[in-house]
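Look over this entry.
=====
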Amino acid sequence: MRNRLFAILPVLALAAFLITAPDRAVAKPAKYEIDPAHVTIAMKVHHIGYYDMIGLFTEAGGSFMFDEENPTVSDIQVVVKTESFFSGHDKRDEHVRSADFLNAKEFPEMVFVGKRAEQTGERTGKIHGELTLRGVTKPLTLDIVWNKSAEYPFGGTLLGGKPYVAGFNASGKLKRSDFGMTYAVDNGLVGDDVELILGFEAIRQD
């Protein structure tokens, strides 16, 4: 009887832990890291008034703290490799990476740091921060939408389970001349106003 009791005790202890332990999906302030395989950062700018040219940055990463219960976002940093600019046209891409625009050789990174978050709706908000580009730092506000948080349907391990992922879309506007990119502004060949478009999945670091 005593042997059976000692055999049952570990099982009871495990059951109690499973009942009282918080679910992985329960919201807590946690660090998230942007998944480099699931991030889109694009820029849109007028070209001679004819159309909006859209280009992508293919290398980016970052992290932030996110609390689903409030919801609040803090400690935001997004780093974009300027050399990774791509629009599907080699000569244009080389020009955009040159000193006329991004000056990617001298300034290989574009960095956004969030300073303050403002909730505007149940799943919307504004991130007020600073963008450093070409060695110049200016204020930038991003409008952000929290799309979803849940266990990811793919991946995971036998020990760790599936990763917990949050997904967001964001957008913002800047003037490239504020960052020293004055090429073709005066003659209107390339627009001064640039729209930034972001979308990404971020993995909770449990």
Summary: The domain at 27-204 is CATH 2.40.128.110 (Lipocalin). Confidence is low (pLDDT under 50) at residues 1-25. Residues 2-20 form the longest helix (19 residues).
